[in-house]
């Protein structure tokens, strides 16, 4: 069982303790909780204070039945803290599954003993604590560590960073691929819808594999919005993840709109600039290969600039990968368009001379410059405005971090000395009456099993305590 | 279970294979991750933020930079002189109407027409003569693929056996076509001549240069005649036949041996397919004569057309363009106008953002981070 700081309970306005042996008393007790309010509760009722709920295993057995479990859930969710004590492992799992089923929330269960295994496995995220009670919890969990206090780090630092990285990665990935592909849709209007690609075939092959792969990987691995100390100081930073703010249908549609705009600009500006245009010496610059060169270089610069805007934590690795991608693009392009490769594999490298002949033209560079700025400046303006008018918690903390540098480290508390005791967490032999609970059929999931002990009606109907024959009595019949 | 632990740091040290903790079991393997900056995600990093101090100056600087560039581009473009004349012969009153109407593929006598025009301004320095086509989709996917670059590079094997991409223009009557493919087959073959009508009445033919119109890399690297240098092209191309729509074989494109065969510059210019359905290609260059006389003086001119190229069937248009050139190419006011408008929008946006920042900019105070 997890040891919880009971101090927090003192801050509650009222604490209701529900212990009962029968269903009736549970309903009565629950009615007593809300004598001030209507007994008909609706989902997510407004709570006018801080309540806590303690429920023991016996009561939970009744409360988890189908007609009562929703009430239990609503009540428990309106409380600040719920303590279920003296519960069996199965009941732990049932409580978790109840929340999972009706609340549509992500559940996390943490435990350290073998009796927590079913709960850990039932939850979305299972965390095991290795140590005093053995390794069973660790073996069945998704994450494990050695001390309970590391849970704070898991959630507030690593979990949060993981969510942010994943969302940024996905958003950027969709953006760069939509911009790259939608361009062909616009070009279709001008090439007779013959599916002629705007770019060189080699660029199409290498774009996702080489030119943009490493920088987005670095974004997904190393990005941090605030560092770990600030994450501890402001746990509110965790709420965007709970509210699903960074990647949802809405953000996806936003990303789609931005990509459509980018692809439009990436096509229309070169189209208008190259219309009936020639080089500085009168020769051709509006040919297919030069146009491809212009659009693909503009695309590379635009997606790199977008990556520059998206990354918040520029390690040396990020810088290396981003600049390296652009350098790799230029190196590979000039190599593939060179004389040597053309002579070796003539039909595979038909773009010979295009890079040299188009990239030495000032009007090509001016067109590229205009295209890139026109794609990036709206994003910059929008983000800046958003930060001015509706700063998110992340923006505020980042500004504070920028002004103040590092916050002071958390004060060092020596770890509490633990006396090594081997206390069993199975309570069969402890208090009287616990055995009744375990041997009752409350936690059996199947309904129509032949009664093991000769009883045919549900104990709920009778308000009698249950009687069971002992093993010796059984054997005597 | 053979696991002991120390709980100072909360890390478990597992002793190896639980036997006697003597010499054999003495090797302790720690599960503690290394305390390096890389593994603990503490790499030193630059953390830029969009602040007013970076964004607003950037907008202003970009705005102030773009406007002069745009003005420069626009002025340069305006100083370029360009003249365009459509000679397709669609209207009945057009001089080339009869040629357009009576076009036939098997005609023996080429049809000629003369189109008069007038230049209002004298053209100085080199003047470039282009032919332009409209509604001609040189960027169609099947069309773009229909060529054999190995054959055009002078490869003997490809000369005899053109690639499959050239189909159905690879063979004609059992002989391989040189050059194969749809692009070569549809080569522009009108002949254009310029005649200046002197005020005295004499007609002066303006000299047109036919070389120096293709890219250097195209002429010297990409396109090569098969066979060794200085061999008779008629001999080299024996066993092949000309493309179906051509009136002359490829080795009779020009009498100049440096401009004959695959390295004929008109051919090279045509083979460099255009990106858009309306395009212009360099046809001839009118070299400047001297600093005193303009290359093309003001006055009346006549364009003599040998009308070989049919465009009426796909509603295309043909035109002739005379243009001077500057460092930014031909006459294209778009870039200048775009720069001026983007620069002014940027500057305005900077002003607007500055106002908004002044009025509402203090919402990032830490005091408002609610707990």
From TrEMBL, chain A:
GO terms for cellular component: plasma membrane; trans-Golgi network. The chain crosses the membrane at residues 169-190, 202-222, 252-271, 291-309, 321-345, 365-385. Residues 399-420, 454-477 are annotated as: Disordered. Its main location: membrane. It comes from Xiphophorus couchianus (Monterrey platyfish). Gene3D superfamilies: HAD superfamily/HAD-like. Residues 138-392 form the P-type ATPase C-terminal domain. This is P-type ATPase C-terminal domain-containing protein. It is found in: Membrane. GO terms for biological process: Golgi organization; phospholipid translocation. It is a multi-pass membrane protein. Keywords: Magnesium, Membrane, Metal-binding, Transmembrane, Transmembrane helix. InterPro entries: ATPase_P-typ_TM_dom_sf, HAD-like_sf, HAD_sf, P_typ_ATPase, P_typ_ATPase_c. The keyword Magnesium applies. NCBIfam families: ATPase_P-type (TIGR01494). PANTHER family: PHOSPHOLIPID-TRANSPORTING ATPASE, PROBABLE PHOSPHOLIPID-TRANSPORTING ATPASE. One of its GO terms (molecular function) is ATPase-coupled intramembrane lipid transporter activity. Pfam families: PhoLip_ATPase_C. Residues 461-477 have a biased composition (Polar residues). It comes from the Eukaryota. SUPFAM superfamilies: Calcium ATPase, transmembrane domain M, HAD-like.
UniProtKB/TrEMBL annotation, chain B:
This is Cell cycle control protein. Keywords: Cell membrane, Cytoplasmic vesicle, Disulfide bond, Glycoprotein, Golgi apparatus, Lipid transport, Membrane, Transmembrane, Transmembrane helix, Transport. The keyword Glycoprotein applies. One of its GO terms (cellular component) is transport vesicle membrane. The chain crosses the membrane at residues 49-75, 334-356. Residues 147-167 are annotated as: Disordered. It is found in: Apical cell membrane; Cytoplasmic vesicle, Secretory vesicle membrane; Golgi apparatus; Membrane. It comes from the Eukaryota. Residues 157-167 have a biased composition (Basic and acidic residues). It is a multi-pass membrane protein. The keyword Disulfide bond applies. It comes from Xiphophorus couchianus (Monterrey platyfish). One of its GO terms (biological process) is phospholipid translocation. Belongs to the CDC50/LEM3 family.
């Amino acid at each position: 069982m997890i040891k919880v700081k009971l101090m927090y309970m003192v801050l509650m306005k009222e604490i209701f303790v529900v212990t009962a042996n029968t269903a009736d008393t549970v309903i009565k007790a629950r009615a007593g909780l809300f004598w001030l309010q209507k007994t008909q509760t609706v989902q997510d009722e407004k709570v006018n204070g801080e309540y806590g709920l303690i429920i023991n295993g016996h009561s939970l057995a009744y409360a988890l039945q189908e007609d009562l479990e929703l009430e239990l859930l609503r009540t428990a969710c309106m409380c600040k803290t719920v303590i279920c004590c003296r519960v069996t492992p199965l009941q732990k799992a049932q409580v978790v599954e109840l929340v999972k089923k009706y609340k549509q929330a992500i559940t996390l269960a943490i435990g350290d003993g073998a009796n927590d295994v079913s709960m850990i496995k039932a939850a979305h995220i299972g965390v095991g604590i290795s140590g005093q009670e053995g390794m069973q919890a660790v073996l069945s969990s998704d994450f494990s560590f050695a001390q309970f206090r590391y849970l704070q780090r898991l959630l507030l630092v690593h979990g949060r960073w993981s969510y942010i990285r994943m969302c940024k990665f996905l958003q950027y990935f969709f953006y760069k691929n939509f911009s790259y592909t939608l361009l062909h849709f616009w070009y279709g209007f001008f090439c007779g819808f013959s599916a002629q690609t705007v770019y060189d075939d080699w660029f199409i092959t290498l774009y996702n594999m080489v030119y943009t792969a490493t920088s987005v990987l670095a974004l997904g691995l190393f990005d941090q919005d605030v560092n770990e100390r600030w994450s501890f100081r402001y746990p509110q930073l965790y709420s965007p993840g709970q509210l699903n703010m960074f990647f949802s249908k809405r953000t996806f549609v936003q990303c789609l709109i931005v990509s459509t705009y980018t692809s439009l600009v990436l096509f229309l500006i070169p189209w208008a600039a190259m219309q009936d245009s020639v080089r500085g010496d009168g020769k051709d610059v509006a040919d297919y290969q030069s146009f491809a060169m212009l659009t693909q270089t503009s695309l590379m610069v635009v997606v790199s600039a977008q990556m520059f805007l998206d990354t918040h934590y520029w390690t040396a690795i990020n810088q290396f990968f981003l600049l390296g991608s652009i350098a790799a693009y230029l190196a590979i392009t000039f190599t593939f368009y060179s004389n040597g490769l053309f002579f070796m594999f003539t039909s595979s490298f038909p773009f010979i001379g295009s890079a040299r002949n188009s990239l030495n033209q000032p009007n090509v560079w001016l067109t590229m410059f205009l295209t890139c700025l026109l794609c990036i400046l709206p994003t910059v303006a929008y983000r800046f405005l958003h930060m001015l008018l509706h700063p998110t918690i992340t923006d505020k903390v980042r500004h504070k971090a920028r002004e103040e540098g590092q916050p002071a480290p958390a004060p060092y508390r020596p770890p509490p000395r633990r006396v090594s005791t081997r206390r069993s967490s199975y309570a069969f032999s402890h208090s009287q009456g616990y055995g009744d609970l375990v041997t009752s059929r409350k936690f059996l999931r199947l309904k129509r099993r032949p009664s093991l002990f000769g009883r045919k009606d549900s104990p709920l109907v009778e308000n009698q305590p249950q009687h069971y024959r002992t093993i010796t009595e059984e054997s005597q019949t | 279970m053979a696991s002991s632990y120390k709980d100072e740091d909360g890390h478990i040290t597992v002793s190896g294979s639980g036997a006697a903790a003597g010499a054999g079991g003495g090797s302790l393997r720690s599960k503690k991750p290394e305390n390096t900056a890389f593994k603990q995600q503490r790499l030193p990093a630059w953390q830029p933020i969009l602040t007013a101090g970076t964004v607003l100056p950037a907008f202003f600087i970009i705005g102030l930079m773009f406007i002069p560039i745009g003005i420069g581009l626009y002025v340069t473009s305006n100083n370029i002189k360009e003249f365009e004349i459509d000679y397709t012969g669609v209207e009945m009153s057009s001089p080339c109407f009869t040629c357009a109407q009576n076009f036939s593929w098997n005609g023996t006598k080429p049809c000629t027409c003369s189109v008069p025009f007038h230049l209002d301004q004298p053209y100085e320095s080199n003047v470039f003569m282009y032919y332009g086509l409209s509604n001609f989709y040189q960027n169609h996917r099947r069309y773009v693929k229909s060529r054999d670059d190995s054959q055009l590079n002078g490869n003997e094997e490809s000369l005899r056996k053109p690639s499959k991409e050239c189909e159905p223009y690879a063979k004609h009557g059992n002989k391989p076509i040189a050059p194969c493919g749809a692009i070569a087959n549809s080569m522009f073959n009108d002949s254009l001549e310029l005649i200046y009508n002197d005020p005295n009445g004499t007609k002066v033919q303006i000299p047109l240069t036919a070389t120096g119109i293709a890219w250097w890399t195209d002429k010297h690297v990409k396109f090569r005649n098969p066979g060794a240098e200085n061999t008779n092209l008629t001999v080299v191309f024996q066993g092949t036949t000309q493309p179906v729509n051509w009136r002359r074989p490829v080795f009779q494109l020009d009498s100049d041996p440096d401009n004959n065969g695959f390295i004929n510059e008109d051919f090279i210019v045509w083979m460099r397919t255009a990106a858009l359905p309306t395009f212009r290609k360099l046809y001839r260059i009118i070299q400047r004569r001297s600093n005193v006389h303009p290359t093309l003086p003001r006055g009346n001119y006549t364009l003599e057309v040998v009308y070989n190229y049919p465009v009426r069937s796909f509603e295309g248009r043909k035109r002739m363009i005379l243009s001077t050139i500057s460092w930014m190419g031909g006459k294209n006011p778009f870039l200048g106008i775009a720069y001026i408008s983007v620069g002014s929008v940027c500057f305005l946006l900077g002003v607007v953002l500055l106002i908004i920042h002044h009025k509402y900019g203090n919402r990032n105070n830490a005091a408002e981070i609610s707990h």
